[in-house]
Specification:
By secondary structure, this protein is mostly helical. The protein has two domains: 1-81, NADH-ubiquinone/plastoquinone oxidoreductase chain 6, subunit NuoJ (Four Helix Bundle (Hemerythrin (Met), subunit A)); 124-167. The chain is built from six helices and no strands. α2 (26-46) packs antiparallel against α3 (50-75). The protein is flat and about 65 Å long.
Amino acid sequence: MPPILFWTFSGIMLLFAAMVVVLRQPVSSALSLVVSFLALAALYVSLEAFFIGVIQVMVYAGAVMVLFLFIIMLLDLKAEVRRRFKLPATFAALAVVLIFGLMVTGVVSSFEMGKSAFPVLAKSDKSDIWHVGDTLFSSFNLPFQVIGVLILVSTVGVVVLSKRELK
């Protein structure tokens, strides 16, 4: 992948992730999260992880965001009111962000293996989807089933909570 595409998709993802936090309309924040998920899927596809990219679009940008939008519209959330920023809190937040940025820069610059290229992966006669399925259903069968039950229980909970009582 050309570096310009990596930086473009990374920039789009970070910009829209910041918009999720900054925007006051809940629907606008949710749609910004969709664009951020799509940019992440584009990064996966550019790394030739096609299955993970497609799953990212179908599960997160599709199903999870439809659920988020359903809940936002069900609860009828309004725009957040504008608050005044307190000057000491703003300076403290900027100081924390600056210190965190310096720490991340220090760790990344001292990481020697990050400067070398990855070795070429061995080609296999089976696709990556087969390997993911084999690992999922052999090594992680119980957690996979537990997550399925949790999603089912949460779906039933949403239906029960959203049911209106007749008076």
